[in-house]
Amino acid sequence: MRDTHKSIYDTVKKAESKIAKIDQYQIYTLEHDTIIADTSLTIQKLYKQNYLRKDTFGLLPFANIGQTYNTLNYGLTSFDPYPEFGFKAKHFNFLEANQIQYYKVATPFTELFFNTSIGKGQNVDSFLTLNTSENLNFSIAYRGLRSEGKYINSLTSTGNFRFTASYQTKNKRYILNYHMTYQDILNEENGGITTPENFESDDPDYNNRQRLQVYLTDARSFLKGRRFFIDHAFRVNRESANNNLFVTHQFNYENKDFEYTQPTVVSTVGTTQVLRFGEPYVYSNINDQTHFNKLYNKFGLAYENVLLGKFYFYVDDFRSNYYYNRVIINTDPVTGVQDIIPSNMSQNINNLGGQYEYQKDRWKGRFLYSRSITNQSLSNLDAFVNYHVNDKIQLEAQYQNINKLPNFNYNLFQSSFLEYNWSNNFKNEKINSLQVSVLNPWLSLSAQYTILNDHLYFFDAATDEEKANYTQIIKPAQYNNAINYLSVKAAKEFVLGHFALDNNVLYQNVQQTDLVLNVPEFVTRNTFYYTNYLFKKALYLQTGITFNYFTSYFGNNYNPVLGEFFVQQDKKIGNYTNFDFFINARIRQTRLFFKIEHFDAALGANNYYSAPDNPYRDLTIRFGLVWNFFQ
């Protein structure tokens, strides 16, 4: 007779011996920063349960999910010495090359993310990664959103497809990371509400936001792009030793397109017909298209010494083309002088750079300097140091000095609207920035001091008469004076038994002759919550209230033709409360999220805006989950 009990026991014992540990599921970046897959439920996970899937403290979302964000914390702005495409207001969910993650896992690993949207639609993000062998990993991911919104012509539809591959030989002599992305971001653009007084009134008829008139009823913007990226390195010496020599290469090909369409050119405010963006060349079917592609190669040689650190020298080649399908010639009717708007702008740039990295005992540091060896004047100095005082306290400091070429849409832009056509030759922006941080269990404190010279921005050039007729004429400008920006951020969590109070406070101060860089003086987020295990620790519960607030200031406004924010001094936003109630739970590897956003909107005045003419979100009930599978 067969010994069934022994057979089952042996099978279970054999299976248990093959169970992978959680630290065998690794997620890393190009900078070799590695984290372990985490299925815990913390207050930080709540902050990341959103469209961007990151903590958005310092960002103010628009009314519908998938629209743009107003930037409350200028310290979140990053700089690159190379010229960028522009249309920055449309790039919050556009994943750049340095944001792509790579994986190394013991068994197939899956994550499913889901969140309800506003109105009809859903917000999903899912990925699957597996190692076909110990040295070869593949991952595939897709993030998709469709959200109807509450206002007329505010639907959003986005998609972010990612595919990655990672490979290394058994002796780790050759290492390769590859990714491919295809991303598209579609927004219906309503240009904001035409009668803020109706929104701010207590008239219950306007609680149905579809009854609020908007400037644009059929306009939309569409940003799409694809990228092929390779980063690989080869160790010259056969065996890994105390001295290693590497040959490196990075390749990045990317193209982007931005399209703005507006079939109906004339807007209606009340019963008056207006031209929101001024006179057009044609009075129907506006279709503006901007194209961009770039090819980037970086060749380097790295020497690594176990005592001295890592020395890295490189030369790169940056080639780009920003273009339209026409040349515009405007002739002044009085002087006869012709203003020619070219069809394209190209850049061919070569940089020479070096980097030094050191990590030993309690010290970790990185020093980078690069400078162009072609006609363009651009440079980048970036120095970073981290010191572990002990197991609980870390000190960090970073200094950056960047000489940055202007983004392309500052120097060249074409549109079907007459006033939205220009060809400029702006100077480089110069940015000096110093950041210091103290990280410890009691209080995390960071400060940033930045000096901006030749700062580029957009502003409304409409005359008072044009503004009275609801016309918006946005143009680029360069500020000739220095701007001094200071921020101090403090984060602290107080815990007493099952209760906790998590606090984030930001202070900002700007010294400038004119109101060009505008930010709120104070931004705060405070979360009071309760946590406990229930049902014999089968369920972990987290529930509480989050308070968000920022002081009033001249918040930047948004222009859909450019896909950019612009400076304004006509209306202040802010100084309103924003409370969220949440109940979260974790059951094994599944985290559940339930939130009532801005529940005090039903109790107070309708004075909440994300930008002038663009209201913030009303009371919204949201549900979401994150589900991990370890096959």
Task: Give the helix/strand layout.
Layout: H1 4-16, E1 26-28, E2 34-36, H2 43-47, E3 59-61, E4 69-71, E5 102-104, E6 109-116, E7 121-133, E8 136-147, E9 156-168, E10 174-189, H3 196-200, E11 219-235, E12 243-264, E13 267-269, E14 272-274, E15 284-305, E16 309-323, E17 328-331, E18 338-341, E19 344-360, E20 363-372, E21 379-388, E22 394-404, H4 408-411, E23 412-413, E24 422-423, E25 429-439, E26 444-453, E27 455-460, H5 464-468, E28 474-479, E29 483-496, E30 499-511, E31 522-534, E32 539-550, E33 557-559, E34 564-566, E35 578-587, E36 590-597, E37 609-611, E38 614-615, E39 620-630
Antiparallel strand pairs: 1-2, 1-5, 3-4, 6-7, 6-39, 7-8, 8-9, 9-10, 10-11, 11-12, 12-15, 13-14, 15-16, 16-19, 17-18, 19-20, 20-21, 21-22, 22-25, 23-24, 25-26, 26-29, 27-28, 29-30, 30-31, 31-32, 32-35, 33-34, 35-36, 36-39, 37-38
Characterize the structure shown:
The protein is mostly beta strands. It contains 5 helices and 39 strands. It has a 22-stranded antiparallel beta barrel. The chain has a 3-stranded antiparallel β-sheet with strand order 2-1-5, with no helix packed on it. A hairpin with a 2-residue loop joins strand 29 and strand 30. It is globular, with a radius of gyration of 27 Å. The protein starts with a helix and ends with a strand. Residues 1-17 have low confidence and may be disordered.
